Each structure stands twice: as structure tokens, then as C-alpha cells.
Amino acid sequence: MSRRRTLGTKKKIALLVSAAAVAGGGAFVMASTGNAAQSPRTLSAADSTVCQGLATALGNNQKFIDGQRANPDAQSAARIANREAVIAQIKVQQKASGCAVGESAQGSQATQPAQTTPPAQPSKTASAPAGNAGGNAGGAAASGQQVCNGSTVTLSGEGGAPAASSNQFPAGTTLKVTNLDNNKSTTVKVTSVSGSCVLLNNAAFEQVREPGKFLIRRALIQKVG
Question: What is the distance of C-alpha 185 from the center of its chain?
């Protein structure tokens, strides 16, 4: 009788150990699956309009820095330092938004300088047959000369009062930027040089942006002074 009891006890211990091992293995698998599911996916400019806008802003600022290094003047070092600080801030925004940090879209504005000469034709159609453009675009176009037709607008990342930077218009030029997706507009002066037709600083961009977006795809840009 004592022998049977001993064997029964050993079997019970063996079964308990096996059960604990199986439970532990299951817990490990569940923990591993949970950790894999929690790892965030990094978004690219192709995945998100927010990431695209930030990549465009970073690319425009980098393009400006490259231009300053290629043709330096007495103020180039200060301008480059300022834009490097802006790029650092954009990278912080990319990380916070789940975007690929450091992703740049320098080519996004590359074809725009070719549109600098023909803006005189849109201005004629804007001032005379304003209804030709239709809706809000036609009414807004009558208040100034339309420029940079087809350009997108993003932010420079710079602080301060509402202002703009441009590679086509000198400091002191007044530009009106209208976001045709929400009919919001801002009128600002150009205060510095950038790598594209128009970049709005943070304050100006906030006046016309759609929530959560860092890029205006349908923009009406006018020279009003």
C-alpha cells in the first residue's frame, strides 16, 4: 500500500511540473505577441499627409541651406544656423507624429521656379473675367496678381509673427495665401529667403491650415503688394 502511495505522489508532482511548464510557455508566447503588436509602425510621406507635409518642409529648408552653402554671402552662416534649428524642430514633430524622422522631400518644389515667368497671364483672367475661375477662387483672385500657380504651401517651422519666406519675391513683398480646401486666407509680408515660392511660418500657417495637416495642396497665392 505504501508503495502505491509513493508512486501516486511522484506522478502528481510530475504532472504539476509539466502543467507549469506549458503554462509558462504559453505566457511567454502571449507576451511576445503582445510586445510585437505594441511596436509602432513608422509612417512615410506616402502613408500620411501629415508626414508628407513635414517631409516637404524639411526638404525646403534643406534646399535653402544647400543654396546658401553653394553661394554664400556675409549672412549665410546666420541663415544656415537658423534653418538647421528649424530642421531640428521639424524632426521633433516627425517623431511625435510617428513619421520617419529625417525624411525629406526636396524634389517636391523642384519644378516650381519654371513657373516664375508666366504669372502675367493668370492675372489678366483673374482681374477681368473673375467668374471664369469659379467660386471662391475667382473672387479672391481679383484682389491681386496670381503667382506660383499650382504650387503647394507648407510651413517653414520658424516662429514669430505671421510672415512668409520665398525664393522668388524679395523681402517686403506682400503675399496673400488662400487655402482653397477651407477658404481660409492670410496676408503676410516676405521677411526672408527660402527654397520654394512661398513658405509660411508657424503663425501664418496656423491661420490657414486644416487640423492635423502640414501641407496645403490647393493653394491660391497672390502678390498684393
Answer: 19
Give me the helices (H) in the chain, please: 2-38, 49-70, 76-96, 120-127, 135-141, 202-208
Instruction: Render pLDDT for 126-137 as a digit per residue (tens, 0 to 9).
Output: 333 333 333 333
Question: CA angle 63-157-203, nearest 5°?
Answer: 140
Q: Can you give the pLDDT at residue 116?
A: 35
Domain that holds residue 111: 49-223
Residue 22 forms part of a structural domain: no
User: What is the DSSP track for 117-132?
Assistant: STTHHHHHHHHSSGGG
Q: Assess if residue 40 is contained within a domain.
A: no
Phi, psi of 161 (to 5 degrees): -65, 160
Q: Residue 186 in contact with residue 160, Cβ under 8 Å?
A: no
The CATH code of the domain that includes 79 is 2.40.40.10
What's the count of helices (H) and strands (E) in the chain, helices before strands? 6, 8
Q: Dihedrals φ, ψ of 191, to 5°?
A: -115, -15
- Report how many domains make up the chain: 1
Question: Hey, CA dihedral for 92, 97, 111, 209, is it positive or negative?
Answer: negative
pTM of the model: 0.54
Question: Order of strands, edge to edge, in the sheet holding 174-179?
Answer: 145-147, 219-223, 174-179, 184-193, 164-166, 199-200, 153-155, 215-216
Question: Residue 158: which residues within 8 A CB-CB, separation 6 or more?
Answer: 82, 86, 165, 192, 201, 202
For 73, the 3-state DSSP assignment is coil
